[in-house]
């Protein structure tokens, strides 16, 4: 642990059940650029160096390899299962009756686990795309959000929890209008919500909404996702690590701009899940949240620098008749049909 981080020094968030989740995790989405072997090797190194939260998903196509690595970590006595907080996600093509249960069980088999700490509905509709597709890809079966369909998925998540296959359940890529439609119908509330969060896209209204409902926000793309797939790139995108405010703070602390983004995320109250296969990077990412915090003035400077620049627009999930990617995110305050 000489070059790593003592897990006891990593801050944590408390879920509504009282369970504790580390305030930073390692992401495992290889962005169509990194092989399952590269990602799983990074998971071993990350855990060896102090990470205890691992964010997984079936659609990332690397759970078997991560499962093999988890087995090695347990065998090598690097960590015990109960010391890890492992998440999973049901993909959009497994929303049918019984399919959420089957998908979770397959993930458990692939990961070599008896339970997941948190299981997400990855996207709130059954629209999906082929792995590695381009931004113009469309599935003719895609359709708008349906409260009834979503609750059918959520009831299966609740069943997973009741059967002990998962400890908590969560939602992802939601909006306030969608949450307003479903939260009162939930028998078991979401413990966390994954959402895009970085200095250039802070989603203050949604962030405040989930916190007021005792739901922990988990932020993906925490440093602006420089490795995201080409389909998620547009000429208008803002690079967080090049924002003047971030660069100024980085210079003052003599740290990398990406580290500023991560410090900001944890101090603000969200759980960032940065992805890296490079050991110096993932160690630096975790270490930075245990030392040299940003000042209140720096936090305020970043708050005011929000560019409302969504990077993962999700246009591959659009349905026939949709006006544009904005329809996925209910930007007018109503659920798009």
From TrEMBL:
UniProt binding sites for substrate: 122
Signal peptide: none
Annotated InterPro entries: AKR (IPR020471), Aldo/ket_reductase_CS (IPR018170), NAD(P)_OxRdtase_dom_sf (IPR036812), NADP_OxRdtase_dom (IPR023210)
Pfam families referenced in this protein's UniProt entry, alphabetically: Aldo_ket_red (PF00248)
One MF term in the entry's GO annotations: oxidoreductase activity
Superkingdom per UniProt: Bacteria
Domain NADP-dependent oxidoreductase: 24-303
Annotated SUPFAM superfamilies: NAD(P)-linked oxidoreductase
Active site feature: 60
Annotated site residue numbers, Lowers pKa of active site Tyr: 89
Name the UniProt record assigns to this protein: Aldo/keto reductase
Lineage: Bacteria, Bacillati, Bacillota, Clostridia, Lachnospirales
